[in-house]
Amino acid sequence: MRDFRQRLRTPIAGLAVVTACLLTASCSGGGASPSGPGADGGAGTSAPATPLPQIKISPVKGASKVRPEKSVVVTVGDGELEEVTVEAGGKPLKGEFDAGRTKWVSKGPLKPSATYTVSAKATGQGGPATATSSFTTLKPAQELRIADITPNVKGETVGVGMPIMVRFSRPVADKKAVERALKVTAEKPVSGAWRWIDDSLVIYRTVKYWPAHQKVRFTAALEGVRDGKDVYGVRNYATTMKVGAAWISSVSTRSHQMIVRKDGKIVQRMAISAGKATTREYTTTNGVHLTMERGNPVTMISPGKKKGDPGYYKEVVDHAVRISNSGEYVHSAPWSVGSQGRANVSHGCVNARPDQAKWFYDNFHRGDVVKIVGTTRTLEWNNGWGYWQLPFKQWKKGSALAG
């Protein structure tokens, strides 16, 4: 009996040791935090670390030949965007965040043939995060530029009728896209509209004359504007014109008088002689003219005639101010002083006494208004700067954005 009991106690004791070991192992839980739930519902594992904000940038890093109309987009997960900077050549690209600051999208086109760098910062519960990237935009097969802006003479003062004329370096295919890039702002705003004269020339005219004594600024945000397949604007433009006093001259070919007003006040009365009207080309045109340029002297030759033809003339005149492209000027005519104020004897111009013609020449600005009445010939809207001849409702139909 003693031997049997002795043998029985030995396995039981061994079983107790094994059980104790198992209990110890199950309590250890593989290193879990005491605060976390375990697999058996008791004390569990530690919580995973909160992830850092994940920033994504498009176009992707190293992208090349990116089209300028593509937007730069920066997004973040598990956080908020704190700062986004996109620039090329030290020039920042504007953009906007969404309401939750999880997305930033660039505004406006990218600059062609440029390398952009992108830098973004974000914050979140997992801590701060940063990301950087760079990409290159394509080089256009053809470039769209502005060849000329009128007026664009530094320090020039213009009249209240002055249009803004923009000529491009090549025919414009996508007139809507290009016109959207053109902006006119004034210290004393007045409504206006662009009109395409041809594929390369667009002109801005206001619904009524510019308010006098102010500055008007023209800008063309052409950089990156797509005009066709692989055709893009490659730079922006800006110019400011100064609108001076309201110089309005009224000419009556019947009373043979010209009255000049400055800001509504009469500053000069001139006896004149207009076209003799024996033919259409010798008939002064009715309507709203703008002063365009001047010369002293100017050589005038009969239109459509050569030396020896009936009615041919070649005259050198002083103090001449152009008011149309059909050969009309306000100019000095000492040979017709006896007719000025009494009869129309010119070839279509407005002739004046030498001293008064010089006064007009010295005081005019490009874009001053000359209204002529009393004849049977109407100034065509596209004769010189006769743009005021077109009713504004009709004028604005020439905009690519009309309707």
Strand and helix layout:
Elements lengths: L1 H27 L7 E2 L5 E2 L9 E5 L14 E5 L2 E9 L2 E2 L2 E3 L5 E4 L8 E9 L5 E8 L5 E3 L1 E5 L6 E2 L5 E5 L6 H6 L1 E5 L5 E5 L4 E6 L7 E7 L5 E3 L2 E3 L3 E7 L3 E6 L4 E6 L2 E9 L11 E6 L2 E3 L2 E4 L12 E4 L2 E3 L6 E4 L17 E3 L1 H10 L5 E5 L3 E2 L13 H4 L8
Keywords: Acyltransferase, Cell shape, Cell wall biogenesis/degradation, Peptidoglycan synthesis, Signal, Transferase
Pathway: Cell wall biogenesis; peptidoglycan biosynthesis
Protein name: Ig-like domain-containing protein
Question: Mean pLDDT, rounded to whole units?
Answer: 89
Q: Examine the secondary-structure arrangement and name the CATH architecture of the largest domain.
A: Beta Barrel
CATH class of the largest domain: Mainly Beta
Span between N and C termini? 116 Å
The largest sheet is:
10 strands, mixed
Helix/strand-derived category reads mainly beta
Key features?
403 residues, peptidoglycan synthesis, 10-stranded mixed beta sheet, signal, 3 domains, disordered N terminus, Immunoglobulin-like, Big_10, 4 helices, acyltransferase, L,D-transpeptidase catalytic domain-like, mainly beta
